[in-house]
Automatic annotation (TrEMBL):
GO MF annotations in UniProt: FAD binding; oxidoreductase activity
PROSITE patterns to which the protein is assigned, alphabetical: FAD_PCMH
Cross-referenced Pfam families: FAD-oxidase_C, FAD_binding_4
Name of the featured protein: Glycolate oxidase
Residue ranges that the Swiss-Prot or TrEMBL entry lists as coiled coil: none
Keywords, in A-Z order: FAD, Flavoprotein, Oxidoreductase
Length: 477
């Protein structure tokens, strides 16, 4: 008897899986036309692409559970996806996987102002969580720059941060509970609308687990009363190292600004051309924001301005109005878009101790010359969360590879000075092989065993987070 051609086998399997998925979801929630699945072939790390087998868009926890049960029975890998803004390739599919998108899970399920929490479906965008409570004077603190688009699900998976996380912490510090669907379709509740759930700290484990352990469908989030007021100050310096030293001194002084953001000259120039925020033409600038009552703001800014003056700033501009504050933030908020207009870039994400900022900024400048590739720095300096943007030309042969090697050297430097590979963007595919730099084999094996427990068949978000060589035998089943 003739064997069917491999393509025919693949097609028959695809048809069977799609038919089973369509039996538990509305037909428009299952996408298998290659012209449409292309929209899901990458996330914001666009250098890497692969169309999935199919895409499903369930509308409830029950539908998510039904999808996972089928994929578990069929041995089909599943890639959870929020809004696809990951910069680490975390939501990129493999050719044999089903993308499980949560973009239809957008409801607000409960708001409790007395106990300061909101419960939402996990596909709701970050900014619209604040949108749901701001009329009552509340907000949700973690504020990634992508907050207009990114989903709470992705924020939880990546333990995302943002400009204002210096004071309020990142997602894990603002997450109270999740509904998690495991790969076999079992639904579990973890944490809830109260501080510190009993039992193991599963919530701490799930937050930042990059879609490796289950699919989050609902989240209970802490909401906070809006501060009385806030005031940013713009500081310009004639060297990045001096700006870095100023950040280290502010942190050392024990004042706690709500944000300390850093931009260097290439970034300042690009954002000025793009947004015209009126930034000074200098080597580096800081935006330092404090909040509280007028008296608290004056007191904190008094200390901060005194420190800044010791570093000979070329500009010190304290905001005097809401319009001026918005203008100070305008350039920073448009920095990524502005850089994207003029160059291909790869956005890195590593953390370092704040005191190492001057050294690391100097080394990045030196490496930029060694590699012959430009670099622009824009990052959350108060947390020591660096985001060097390496500039390259995607159409120039060899440039991407050089850019990756440069990026790997920067991340190794972060680890060397006592920091880590990722502050908020996650490991994804981008840094999976660098995990060996941060962890020794026993550390990695311990992490793999955690996944063994939640996902024994290794079907969830395959080939991410861990070095490929360390997971090959598990992924092969
Ligand atoms: C311009 C720009 C600016 C950015 N600024 C910041 C910033 O300031 N701070 C920051 O932290 N990040 C930032 N990011 C990165 C990105 O926005 C965050 O990582 C964000 O949390 C991703 O959310 P998402 O919904 O787009 O997730 P996706 O990209 O869709 O997925 C991200 C990861 O989450 C997993 N996942 C998605 N949904 C689920 C689910 N339901 N259950 C389990 N796992 C799931 C995916 O498998 C993947 O591993 C930025 C990105 C861009 C493009």
């Amino acid at each position: 008897m003739d064997m069917p051609a491999p393509n025919a086998v693949v097609m028959a399997r695809k048809q069977k899986i799609v038919a089973r998925l369509a039996s538990v979801l509305p037909r428009d929630a299952v996408i298998d036309d290659p012209a449409e699945t292309r929209a899901y072939e990458c996330d914001a790390l666009t250098a890497y692409r692969c169309p999935p087998l199919a895409v499903v868009l369930p509308s409830s926890t029950e539908e998510v559970a039904a999808v996972l049960r089928i994929c578990h029975e069929e041995g089909v890998p599943v890639v959870p996806r929020g809004s696809g803004t990951s910069l680490a390739g975390g939501a990129m599919p493999t050719a044999d996987s089903v993308i499980l998108g949560v973009s239809r899970l957008t409801e607000v399920l409960e708001v409790d102002y007395d106990n300061r929490f909101i419960r939402v479906q996990a596909g709701r965008t970050n900014l619209s969580v604040t949108g749901a409570v701001e009329e009552e004077g509340f907000f949700y603190a973690p504020d990634p720059s992508s907050q207009l688009a990114c989903a709470i699900a992705g924020n939880i998976a990546m333990n995302s941060g943002g400009a204002h996380c210096l004071k309020y912490g990142v997602t894990t510090n603002n997450l109270l509970g999740v509904t998690l669907v495991q790969m076999d379709g079992t639904v579990v509740e973890i944490g809830g609308a109260y501080m510190d759930a009993g039992g193991y700290d599963w919530l701490g484990l799930i937050c930042g687990s990059e879609g490796q352990l289950g699919v989050v469908t609902e989240a209970t989030l802490r909401i906070l009363p809006k501060p009385e007021g806030a005031r940013p100050v713009l500081m310009g310096f004639d060297s990045s190292e001096v700006a870095g030293a100023c950040v280290a001194d502010i942190i050392k002084a024990g004042v706690l600004p709500v944000a300390i953001e850093f931009m260097d000259r290439p970034c300042i120039r690009a954002t000025e051309a793009f947004a015209g925020a009126g930034y000074p033409d200098c080597e580096a600038l800081l935006i330092v924001e404090v909040e509280g009552s007028a008296a608290e703001i004056d007191e904190q800014l008094g200390v901060i301005l005194q420190i800044a003056r010791k570093h000979d700033p070329v500009e010190l501009r304290e905001s005097g109005s809401a319009e001026e504050s918005a203008r100070i933030w305008l350039g920073r908020k448009s920095a990524f878009g502005a850089m994207g207009q003029i160059n291909d870039y790869m956005c890195l994400d590593g953390t370092i101790p704040v005191s190492a900022l001057p050294l690391v900024l100097r080394r990045i400048g030196e490496m930029s010359k060694e590699y012959g590739l430009g670099v622009a720095n824009v990052f959350h300096a108060g947390d020591g969360n660096m985001h060097p943007l390496i500039l390259f030309d995607a159409n120039k042969p060899g440039d991407l590879e050089r850019c990756e090697a440069f990026g790997a050297d920067i991340l190794k430097l972060c680890v060397e000075v006592g920091g880590c590979l990722t502050g908020e963007h996650g490991v994804g595919i981008e840094k999976r092989d660098l995990m060996n730099v941060q962890f020794d084999p026993a550390d990695i094996e311990a992490q793999l065993r955690v996944k063994d427990v939640f996902d024994p068949k290794w079907l969830l978000n395959p080939a991410k987070v861990f070095p490929l060589a360390a997971t090959a035998s598990r992924r092969a089943g």
